[in-house]
Amino acid sequence: VQLVESGGGLVQPGGSLRLSCAASGFPFNRYDISWYRQAPGKERELVATITSTGGSTDYVVSVKGRFTISRYNAKNTVYLQMNSLKPEDTAVYYCNVDPITRRTNIRFRSWGQGNQVIVSA
User: Residues 14-69: pLDDT tens digits?
Assistant: First the structure.
């Protein structure tokens, strides 16, 4: 299993970024995929989840209406479009399978390198 995140960086409050996650080593189109983030000094938290077909999405309350998760199964890639960014969105962002699958399947216990997002004026 390999998950490679990209697209982060430094952005001003109110700005936008799009993260990408390229997956390999498993049948991507069979799994629900999630974005997570870990802010300095805090535990990693679930941000958004998309079902295997892309037909349903879910978000943590703090990002609803600002972030959009999507996927392109033909390219084994999942995206996170982040708009109206706030300083509290500053974190390292990771992709992985959904939390339940991750807890029950040892193949997905490791994390990729993540991608830093910094929201600052």
Answer: 999 999 999 999 999 999 999 999 999 999 999 999 999 999 999 999 999 999 99
Per DSSP, the residues of 21-42 read: EEEESS-GGGS-EEEEEE-TTS
Token pair of 40 as six digits: 């300095």
d(CA 115, CA 97): 16
DSSP symbol at 108: G
Pairing, β 91-97 against β 33-38 = antiparallel
Q: Which one-letter DSSP state was computed for residue 14? A: T
Q: Determine the Cα–Cα distance for residues 84 and 27; give it in Å rounded to an integer.
A: 33
Q: Which string of DSSP letters, residue by residue, matches 52-102? A: TTS--EEE-GGGTTTEEEEEEGGGTEEEEEE-S--GGG-EEEEEEE-HHHH
